[in-house]
Design a protein that fits this description.
The chain has 19 helices and 16 strands. A hairpin with a 2-residue loop joins strand 2 and strand 3. Helix content is 50%, strand content 17%. The strands form 3 sheets. Strands 8-9-11-12-13-14-15-16 form an 8-stranded mixed β-barrel, surrounded by 4 helices. The protein has a 5-stranded mixed sheet with strand order 2-3-1-6-7, with helices on both faces. The radius of gyration is 38 Å and the shape is elongated. The two termini are 57 Å apart. Helix 1 runs antiparallel to helix 3, helix 5 runs antiparallel to helix 6 and helix 8 crosses helix 9. It folds into 3 domains: 89 residues, no CATH class; 151 residues, Alpha-Beta Plaits (2-Layer Sandwich), CATH 3.30.70; 251 residues, EAL domain (TIM Barrel), CATH 3.20.20.450. By secondary structure, it is α/β, with parallel strands linked by helices. It binds guanosine-5'-monophosphate (2 copies) and manganese (II) ion (MN).
Amino acid sequence: MFNARSEPGGTHLEVRARRDALVIFGGFTALLILFINIEAFEYVVRFSDGHESWELDEILTAMMVLPFAMAIFSIRRLREAHLELDWRITAEERAHAMAMHDPLTGLANRRNLTQALEKAIARADVSPLTLLLIDLNRFKAINDLHGHQAGDELLIESAKRLQAHVGSNAIVSRLGGDEFVVLLKDVANSETILPRIEEISASFDEPFTLNSGSVSMGASIGATTVDTSHISAGTVLSQADAAMYKAKLRRSNCFHFFEAGMEMAAIRRAEIESALRKAIDEGRIEPHYQPLICLKDNRLIGYEVLARWRLEDGSLRMPDDFIAIAEETGLIGDMFYGLVERAAADVRNWSPELTFAMNVSPVQFSDEWLVERILQILTKAGIAPGRLEIEITENALVTDVAMARTLIEEFKKQGIRVALDDFGTGYSSLRHLSELDFDKLKIDRSFIHNVAHNESSQTIVRTITSMAHNLGLQVVVEGVETIENALSVMGYGCDIGQGFLYGKPMAKAKPYPEAAATDEASDDDDEDGGGRLAHSA
Ligand code: G
Ligand code: G
Ligand code: MN
């Protein structure tokens, strides 16, 4: 790139102007000396007198004015050259600023940060640094729900909050998307740094005011402190990234410091991601079926479909180990559709009154073809939409109430029933329950496992059940493991039971009560033989 400032002695424009001036002045002086020496003027006068008709005297007079005109012309050209130089310097500074800053927030960009980080690392032996990697929580959902304008507003406001909470001896940078980095220099020790990070983390607790209203958005922060110059900027960033991922897992506004070994977890995650991609393509994510029992007459009404990953060695990997990764990497959609297809093929062979329930992740709310694609799969398999039930977790409501409402309405319009899953573990309000048109409410298994002996569990189950019934919802209890628990929940009027007592999730939907009798030894496909072992391995 042309650089106006880097040539020695100025720009090529200036150099040339100066050289031209020198040549002209030198040539002029030389000619003058020559003319004086040979008395050229006398010669010209004589020549002019001899050729009166040529009007040489007039031409000579005109030529005497010429040097002045030339001088004025040169001065003007030199001024223009200067102006152009100034303009170029400004343009170049602007281009430089653009190449080093994020245009939306005005913060330093990745390149800028990397340079600053490399410099700070070089001095880290004497002056340690702390790097924070900040990833906004729920940003994608808000962006999808409120539009990109709102997303931009959030990013700008986040940048302002970060800048307001770090001192002058810090660099705030936007890496891209909803990821920010704060580089704190001259960090004395980890005790003094903690309150500063807490302050930054707390600044995200306040709701954000947008043109379209106010939203809550949090941030997950990964932190790492560097006190050696023998580390690369890339390693420092990936340490902070691994720590940030740890913070993200806690699903609230918090921060986490990097610890040795976290990189391994990050590498393992990347491995799982690529293996999962392959498993989905190869159809190794299988539906397993857990019976749902009508408590009034102890009759099978259908099954919940639970995803299982069949590994190459035949063992099973459980959803807790891959659903979160599928959600983060956007693989959840493909995984889900594959599962619906396989489940639909199995459901065709069931007795026609049996239903099947599928779990939908909140990440899938942004899939605008979700309902259409499900219907398409059902139609192709020849299954009535009324046999499908969708389970949405309570946490999904908190992120996206409006989105959840639209989706629930769409499902209901198609005759697909919708259940609120894991009730009691999230933060959904009673208002959500009355405003959203659910058919069923599934009380989380943590309230059930000890319900026969624990008074507060009893109160909770009883209260939720009567409230749900008043709102016209059926109640499903998850995690029924013992006859005692079954008798308790039946006493409270719960409608449907699910749990190991009635049957574990299994590769082939067995009729009930045969399903309940299946034990680990008698069935190779039952996951609680090899499955749980694979899970804990
Ligand atoms: O199946 P358990 O057997 O371990 O399942 C653990 C959790 O994973 C449950 O809360 C369940 O809702 C969730 N889960 C199981 N299968 C699926 C799936 O296909 N999609 C989504 N989003 N969640 C699932
Ligand atoms: O999506 P949901 O959270 O409803 O998934 C049900 C989860 O509960 C699955 O992980 C399933 O394996 C598990 N589960 C089902 N029945 C029981 C049970 O009786 N006891 C326990 N502890 N877990 C169960
Ligand atoms: Mn469920």
